[in-house]
Amino acid sequence: PAYGTTYSLKPEIDFPKQIVFCANQYSKTIQSSDKARGFRWFRINSDATEVLVSNSNVVSLEKWGSYRYEAFNSIAFFGNTVECVASQLFEVVQSRPPEIEQVAINRETNGLNISVVPKGIGNYEYAIDDENGPFQDDNTFNQIPNGQHTIFIRDKDGCGVASRVIEKQIVA
After folding, report:
1. Geometric angle at alpha carbon 14, from 67 and 4, rounded to 5°
2. Using one digit for the tens of pLDDT, what is the confidence trace for 51-60?
3. CA nearest 34: which of 54, 14, 56?
4. Any bridge partners for residue 168, and if so which?
């Protein structure tokens, strides 16, 4: 290195602040793609103590809650080993497959306004007449022609899809 040039040995990490488990999952394996010499994963207990759950770039998460991920590089410095650590706190949260609690239909002169009310805990998106979408974040569809339609709710984290056929013949 040139005189006066500074290099950081602290790894750059790219890790999400939230990992989602579907309600029917009992564990989820996560692999870090960060470039580092070492890795540590800690579960953070309710009393703020930490428990080491893995010391490789792969971890199997089995509980919802708070965690901390570390990636580090080591260097020998005057006979001692120094770790340059980067860390990220993250939450493991639960999602459930969507359910359709209610479909509200308002008849207007220019078509139907359809509003879908989901049931469940999740991050959902909505489609009409095609289970492959396009999906939208808004749970309302406007100016839909009269006739048979199928409403779809999809969990954005891959925890399932719900559908409901609404009235076969809706008369304005």
Report:
1. 115
2. 999 999 999 9
3. 14
4. none
